[in-house]
Each structure stands twice: as structure tokens, then as C-alpha cells.
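Supplementary Methods S3. Complex input for the pyridoxal-5'-phosphate-bound model.
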Amino acid sequence: MSDTPRAASLAFGRPYLAIPGPSVMPDRVLQAMHRAAPNIYGGEVYDVVDAIWPRLKAVARTKQHCAVYIGNGHAAWEAANANLFSRGDKALVVAVGHFGLNWAQSARALGVDVEVLDFGISTPVDLSQVEDALRADTGHKIKALLATHVDTSSSIKTDITGLRGVLDATGHPALLAVDCIASLGCDEYHMDDWGVDVTVAASQKGLMTPPGLGFLWFSEKARARCADSDIRTPYWDWEPRACGSQFWQKFCGTAPTHHIYGLSEALKMIEDEGLANVWARHRTLAGAVWSAFEVWGGGNPAIALNVVQAVNRGCAVTAARLGGRDATRLREWCEQQGGVTLGIGLGMAPPDDPAWHGFLRVAHMGHVNAHMTLGVLAVMEAGMQSLNIAHGEGGVLAATKVVSAHFG
Ligand SMILES: *Cc1c(COP(=O)(O)O)cnc(C)c1O
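Predicted complex, serialized as C-alpha cells:
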């Protein structure tokens, strides 16, 4: 039996996919991709590619190296692992959700000796435990510390400058590698200023381009330290991609021609807005989502944000619980009656556990604006009313106040 009413659906109209990724693809990006295949042996696509590299570095706030892969985030993880490590090298992974654990699994499968500090699904990284693990490694066997800037499953943001501080305080030489797949182009991030050696990202989240490109940015220090890494095979080697003189080396074969045009347009959109403004927009829209949940939770203790302290929350996605089956009911209602698709609660409970139906995520990453986020929240509130899910009154009103406060 369906929870949804028999009245005509209100979902007809432009659908909105508010799962954490793929994110909303701007029409400008899609239109830039809609073209005949360009020649890859010369001509305009060479100029577009040449222009993209410095712009990609600007988005990660680095002046060092950038390698692009045809692949998704998992490919970019594997690329990072293949370049960072030799078989038997040690990695220290700090995990705050599903994605950190999966990056660790990729390294383990490649023959890396992986130690995981698992902080669970709702608790931020405890820097003192990281410090203890680094101090215990008196032989400096740990070659790299792997962290997730914003874990998309839990929406926990990790304090990257804090990790850098712990590495410096302990005098540990491990390289610092950060998964910014969810956060790049959403949350404030400064690779060079924060002392990060490797940044990992993919095209389909804050970078507003269809899934299919993975990115690594790496420091000169990492390049030198990893020159002999023996997991690296020709396809994954970051060196020719970042520093090769031939066009084909940048992609180790045929260039992802249409993605290049789409990415170039997405970067232009970020540049037109200004990266600091992009971060500020995400901060405000995230704050609007959080304030709505806080009000809703005031009328139903089962409704709560996954991350208690705002300082530990990423600005690209919000993980929350509604309890019982209410998250699944609400997701289905929002999609079928309101035209907005919310994210499932990834990694919060096993999919075959009834508790799985109590979690959801709201994405607010990339090409999103005030009317989209306020619209999601209003549809959610209408859904809770329609489904008789108890909730505090006035969540949307609280969200509108966050949006108006953005302008002082
Ligand atoms: C989406 C995501 C991934 C996985 O990316 P895929 O493109 O699905 O392989 C990894 N890490 C984080 C933080 C993500 O948000």
C-alpha cells in the first residue's frame, strides 16, 4: 500500500535531483558539451585544455601539479593510492563515514598496509587520537595520512588544518592527502596554504560537470617523495598527465573531449561568481537546511541532524535522521508529489536493516540557489504535513531567515 495520496501529483515541472551527486548540471555546461566531436590532433580543444589546467589549480587553491583522469571518484582514489604508495607502505586513514572507509579499502586492495582510525558516522575526527597514532609510529613507516574533507555519507567536515598541525607538531613526515570530492567548489579549501600534499576530486559534485572526470592535485614534495612508488602503472602515473609535453599524455590516450568543454564552462561559472562567493553561498544554503531541521526536531525528537556541532558539518550536503520509516516515506513523497529527489541515508544502517529507512540526506552542492534550497525545504515540510510526520512548525520560516540574514 502506498503512503501517497491519490490526488494529482505536483511533481510535473523541472525535476530537482538533490542527492549528493551527480549534482545539478547547469544548462550552460550541457550546452557547452552539445557539439560535434572535435579533432584531438590539433585545433581548438588544445587551447581549451591548456587553459583548464591553471583554472583547475585555482579551484583547489594550489600552484603545484594537476592530473586529470577519465574516471569517477573511485578512480581518483585509486590514482592517488597508486602514485602515493609502494606495496607494503603504510597508510593512516582517518574515517568519518562510508567514503573514508572505502578509500582505505582501495589502498588495502593495492597492497598498502592500512591503519584506520574509524570515528564512526556521527563524530568528528579526534585530533589527539591522530597525534597518538603518529607518535606511536616512531619508525615513520606511515607514508601518507588520508582524510576526507567532507564525508558525503555522514556530512562530517574534517579539520584539515588541524591534521596539518598534528603532523607538524609531531614532526611526522607523512604526506597529507585529502578527498575533496564532495567539498571542492562548495566548502572553503586552500590546498597550498593548508599544507596539503594530494587533493582528490571528481567532476560531478561541486564542479557541476557530468560524472566522468577524476582529479588529483599534488605537491612538488609528493611528486619527489613518490617518484619510485611501485604500484603505479602507466595509465595511473600522474607524472605525464601533469607534466608531459604531448597532448595525449594529459589523458593517457583519447581526451574526454566533451567533458573538457563542459568542465571549462563550469569553471567559468565558478570564476564569474568568485570562489569566495561560491563558498559563502554554500554556507548560507547549508545554514538554511540546518535551521529547518532544528525547528522540525523541536516538535519530534526523532528528527535530528547527524552532526551535532555546526563547525563539524560540511556545506555541500546534510545527513539527517527522521526515525522509523519516515525518511523513506518522505523521500518518496518529495519525489512523487513534489518533483525533488532527496538522497538516501548512505552508510547509516545496513540496507536490509529496517533502521535504514530512518535516514536521508539533502544535497545543496554546486549549481543551487536560494529558491532551490528553500523549495526543497518547503516541499519536505509539506510532505511531513501530508504524511502526518510529527515536526516542529516553522522550519521553512527559520530557513528564510537564514537566507535573509545572508544580506546583513
Ligand atoms: C562521491 C564521493 C566519492 C565517490 O565518488 P564516485 O564518483 O562515486 O566514485 C568519494 N568520496 C567522496 C567524499 C564523495 O563525495
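Residues 275-298 form the longest helix (24 residues). The radius of gyration is 22 Å.
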